[in-house]
Design goal:
about 575 residues; Protein-Tyrosine Phosphatase, Chain A; FAD/NAD(P)-binding domain; 3 domains; seven-stranded mixed sheet; five-stranded mixed sheet; FAD/NAD-binding_dom
Length: about 575
């Protein structure tokens, strides 16, 4: 019996079908059959006339659109789309393995404007890899001229903290290295500052600068979005099907905030008391809500891991509670923290200090609660609660204000590529940050599957590791200004920093690496990271922003010297 592999609700594809399959396919709900395999291609292949007769007898229509294996033309894709339009649905298209049918659908849909990542995801879910025609898909389903628009020794995808830090680190070691950064954005944001904007400490403008002012001198900026990878050709495909070739590639596009992953959220963000510090334009609204709330119900949420800055959902809650405490209205406000996780914080040494503030602000903790839906006008939210026995139930709550953190995934073009692991994150060795299967590709920042906290502090430590190891692969090592460590690979230890703003003026400075190992930057007599500290607040408020703008993004690696890989 044929196995139909659904691509959309109206189309499935399969390998060669048999006349005797038609009755079962009709019973399964199919109303049309499309043959994409020429008669006589295989010795055991029934002719289309037999298939058509059996399909008609079963009450289905049949169409014959034969395509030679490996020779799907642009006209074939157009014909396939036209046939699918006119035939009753759902339809089943088949060839020898189903690949030609999936290819025809992909190219046809690209011509209609469907996004490349959506096409790649749909075909991959059905078991078909469209990497071989990705350039045609990116080109609207048409065969492009095989031209290279640019070629560089090192290409970096992403002009955020990780991408620019990597470029700066490379340039500081090898000033004449040919580097290009690909990023479509005009503005670069200091995202760690948005929590402080939401707490009324920073103004939004202090967290934004033009991208052009930050790209290191001598690095070419390609202002475009990436559509796909072609690692077998050492090429990146841009929107519009432009091609950029590389000798080595660094992937650092960050992650995708999946606002649409919560029903009703996008329709109400920025109004009806619904806010998030995870967006530049919404962080000021958080502060407006906090200042305006004199009594009522405040809800703060945290989605499943991994997320950008795992402490940020709590930071918003603590700073809000502190403001309400200082203004004397806390007694009239109920605070609820709903987390999809099972614990308050993943490194146990910091939990006691955080619990002191949970109690101070009277916060009610709800673990294993994942936000699924928001109704802003009704001021209601719904959570999927996972019980101890694994069952789930729906929990509803009202709110006067709600701070939402969306679920987070890798960017679409990464998630559907051959560079990703099964979960969609870029697949790297956690120590060297080199791709596990493609040695001329590196990654850093939020996009990787390394089990570290996704923070700017992590990217600051990762950048020199990537720079050193990449240059080593080129037969070069780090320059004296960065403290050369010889010809060996260097290792990233998983370092991440999460300054937990538990009140205005005090921070619990969580610093840790792989496996939750504590990695403090300062001696305990100066800053005890497990306790709230005034000095840690000054570090966050006054020291870290200049370090970010003037050191990290300029290739000055204060307290970020990489160390050689040690044998396990």
């Amino acid at each position: 019996m044929t196995t139909a592999k659904p691509i959309t609700p109206t189309l499935s594809v399969s390998e060669q079908v048999q006349p005797q399959d038609m009755a079962a396919l009709a019973a399964a709900g199919f109303r049309a059959i499309i043959c994409n395999r020429p008669d006589g291609e295989g010795a055991d292949q029934p002719g289309f006339a037999e298939i058509a007769a059996a399909a008609e007898a079963a009450g289905m229509q049949a169409a014959y659109l034969p395509v030679l294996s490996g020779k799907v033309g642009d006209a074939d894709a157009l014909a396939f789309g036209a046939a699918l339009d006119r035939l009753p649905k759902p339809a089943l298209a088949y060839c020898r393995t189903g690949t030609r049918s999936a290819t025809l659908w992909s190219l046809s849909e690209a011509g209609r404007g469907r996004a490349l990542p959506e096409i790649m995801a749909a075909t991959r879910a059905a078991g078909y890899d469209m990497a071989g025609v990705v350039r045609r898909i990116a080109n609207g389903g048409r065969t492009p001229a095989d031209m290279v628009d640019a070629s560089h020794a090192v290409v970096i995808i992403g002009g955020g903290a990780a991408g620019i830090a990597a470029a700066a680190s490379l340039r500081s070691r090898q000033p004449d290295l040919d580097i290009a950064i690909i990023d479509p954005a005009d503005i670069h944001y200091y995202q760690p500052g948005w929590t402080m904007v939401g707490g009324g400490v920073f103004t939004p403008a202090t967290t934004a600068r033009t991208m052009g002012s930050l790209i290191p001198a001598g690095v070419r900026w390609i202002k475009a979005a990436v559509a796909a990878f072609e690692p077998e050709r050492n090429a990146v495909i841009l929107d519009g099907c432009r091609v950029v070739r590389y000798e080595q590639l660094i992937v650092a596009p960050g992650l995708k905030l999946n606002w649409a992953g919560i029903d009703g959220l996008t329709e109400t963000l920025g109004r009806n008391g619904v806010t998030s510090n995870y967006r530049y334009d919404l962080a000021p609204y958080t502060w407006d809500l906090v200042r305006g709330l004199k009594g009522g119900h405040a809800v703060f949420t945290q989605p499943p891991m991994p997320i950008k800055c795992a402490g940020a959902p709590q930071k918003a809650m603590y700073l809000s509670g502190d403001h309400w405490h200082r203004t004397g209205v806390l007694k009239d406000i109920r605070i609820d923290f709903y987390s999809a996780g099972a614990v308050l914080f993943g490194v146990k040494e910091y939990v006691p200090a955080l619990m002191d503030y949970i109690e101070k602000y009277g916060t009610n903790l709800h673990f294993q609660h994942r936000l699924t839906r928001v109704d802003g006008p009704a001021r209601k939210a719904w959570f999927a609660k996972t019980n101890a026995d694994g069952t789930t139930e729906t929990v509803e709550t009202g709110f006067d204000m709600i701070h939402v953190v969306p679920p987070q995934v890798a960017p679409d073009f990464v998630r559907v590529s051959v560079l990703a692991d099964a979960a969609g994150w870029l697949d790297v060795d956690p120590a060297t940050l080199r791709h596990k299967r493609l040695p001329n590709i590196y990654a850093l920042g939020d996009v990787t599957n390394a089990p570290n906290a996704k923070t700017a502090a992590a990217a600051r430590k990762q950048a020199p590791v990537v720079a050193h190891n990449l240059l080593r692969d080129r037969g070069l090592v780090g320059g004296a200004t960065q403290g050369a460590v010889g010809g060996a690979d260097v290792a990233y230890d998983g370092y991440g920093s999460c300054p937990l703003t538990v009140e205005r003026g005090r921070i619990v400075l969580a610093e840790f690496g792989y496996g939750g190992k504590l990695l403090p930057s300062f001696p305990g007599w100066m800053i005890d990271g497990t306790r709230p500290s005034r000095l840690a607040w000054l570090l966050k408020e006054q020291v870290l922003p200049p370090i970010y703008w003037k050191a990290m993004l300029r290739g000055r690696e204060w307290m970020a010297k990489p160390h050689p890989v040690t044998a396990s």
